[in-house]
Amino acid sequence: MAKKTTSRKEKKKVKEWYTVLAPSALNNVQIAEIFGSEPESIVGRKIEATMQDLGAGLSKQNYKFIFKITDVQGLQASTEFVGHTLMGGTTRVTRKGHAKIDQVADVATLDSKKIRLKVMAITEKKIHRLQESAMRKRIVEKLQEDVSKLTLEELIRRLMDDSLSTDLFNECKKIESIRRMEIRASEFL
């Protein structure tokens, strides 16, 4: 018996452009347009957008937020927040005579979402181990105290406007003078 052959036109599926929207915490801003053959084929994809793409201006272009597509309705895809990172050479800004402190804190939000925040602090001068350990301890305590009072949406907004890292900066400068304090990455646990 002869095999049934199908033409190339029958095999080829029509692809469409889907508009990807940020979560409601970021006012459902359009962050990307992606190409897909079926709505199910784009669910689960991760989309990266800089703060500049989200409408924060040029001064915040070194932050990259990561979103995951969760649902497609028509030609619009909705996303959820997955994490963020600080891009490029901004994590390598330590000069001679300064100290860089990296600290990781696992915290839970008010709506019981567990998230890992990675903090980077750069001091004005070299510091002793005792000061470094006191600063690390204070970073973790302050993050657990502040984030436990926030929902996930509020936390995303605080990460975007740098108010969380400003609070950390003001708390840790009591221990030693600090040049820069950044929350360089976040991810869900």
- The coarse overall form would be elongated
Q: For the terminal residues, how far apart are their CA atoms?
A: 56 Å
Main sheet properties: 8 strands, mixed
- Given as residue ranges, the uncertain stretches (5+ residues, pLDDT < 50) are none
- Bin the helical content: 10-25%
Which features characterize this protein?
189 residues; alpha+beta; Tetrahydropterin Synthase, Chain A
Commentary on this structure:
By secondary structure, this protein is an alpha+beta fold. A hairpin with a 2-residue loop joins strand 4 and strand 5 (76-86). Helix 3 (129-147) packs antiparallel against helix 5. Helices cover 24% and strands 37% of the residues. The chain has 2 domains: 15-86, no CATH class; 93-188, Band 7 domain (Tetrahydropterin Synthase, Chain A). It is built from 5 helices and 8 strands; from the N terminus they run αββαβββββαααβ. The model has no long low-confidence stretch (mean pLDDT 85).
